[in-house]
Design brief:
Helix content is 73%, strand content 0%. By secondary structure, it is an all-alpha fold. The N and C termini lie far apart (143 Å).
Length: 256
């Protein structure tokens, strides 16, 4: 299936109004992320925190390539009641996506959409996460909703084409899933038939073994009986021979 790579952007959330900026915020907006990190961390430690301090800090870490510290900064900001959680979740999702943690990125964008269901950037980025994780039905749903919310998106044609590819892929996967299901059913039935045949053969073997054992026991019984009969006949002959041996006494009767 052809894949179209969609651009995932980071929102730097530069406020348009004029207000008293901290040194860290000014360094960040001057595109000095390394200096901004040092200043912002010091300001946060001293309690000089604005609603955007953690957001700028996380983005500054992201610019320096330290994704883990960027995520940590966003999550620290979420524990601070002064920070805007929607933006922190959105930018954390972007960093997680860049890091390759698509599952966590999806969760972050889902948090944003729970608060603002029609926030198009989060919807597009969540769709991209789901594309990476091959969650195609959910991915298609997000892309379609994004096009409804942003009909004039410069990526409309590319996304529409991608949706067509994904819908075709979903059909192919459904057919393959059905084939696998049927094959598993066939194998299960074949395995059941084999188990039944093995059980029948085992039962037959046991019966033959029992018959063989019974025949052997009968042979031994008859053999013992024949030996016993033979011994009994020998004793009877001896007793008869003794009885037939008559002593002949010759004497004259005193009465005669």
């Amino acid at each position: 299936m052809k894949k179209i790579v969609l651009f995932v952007f980071i929102s730097f959330y530069l406020l348009s109004g004029i207000y008293s900026q901290t040194s860290g915020e000014r360094a960040f907006k001057s595109n000095k992320p390394g200096e901004a990190i040092s200043l912002l961390e010091a300001e946060i430690a001293s309690g000089n925190v604005s609603s955007d301090s953690y957001n700028y800090l996380g983005l500054a870490y992201f610019q320096t390539g330290d994704f883990d510290k960027a995520i940590d900064a966003f999550e620290r900001g979420m524990k601070d009641g002064r920070a805007g959680k929607k933006l922190l979740y959105f930018n954390e999702g972007n960093v997680c996506f860049a890091k390759g943690d698509f599952s966590k990125a999806e969760s972050c964008f889902s948090f944003v959409l729970a608060a603002s269901p029609d926030y198009a950037p989060a919807l597009l980025n969540r769709a991209n996460c789901r594309l990476k994780m091959q969650k195609y039905p959910d991915c298609i749903e997000d892309y379609k909703k994004y096009l409804l919310i942003s009909p004039d998106s410069p990526q409309r044609d590319a996304i529409s084409q991608l949706i067509s590819y994904l819908e075709e892929e979903v059909k192919i996967q459904e057919i393959e899933a059905e084939r696998i299901k049927e094959e598993e059913k066939r194998l299960e039935e074949e395995n059941l038939r084999l188990q039944e045949e093995l059980a029948r053969q085992e039962e037959e073997r046991a019966m033959l073994e029992a018959e063989k054992k019974a025949a052997e026991e009968e042979r031994r019984r008859k053999l013992l009986e024949d030996v016993a009969n033979s011994l009994q006949q020998t004793d009877s002959t001896s007793m008869t021979a003794g009885a037939e041996e008559v002593l002949d006494y010759e004497y004259e009767s005193e009465l005669e």
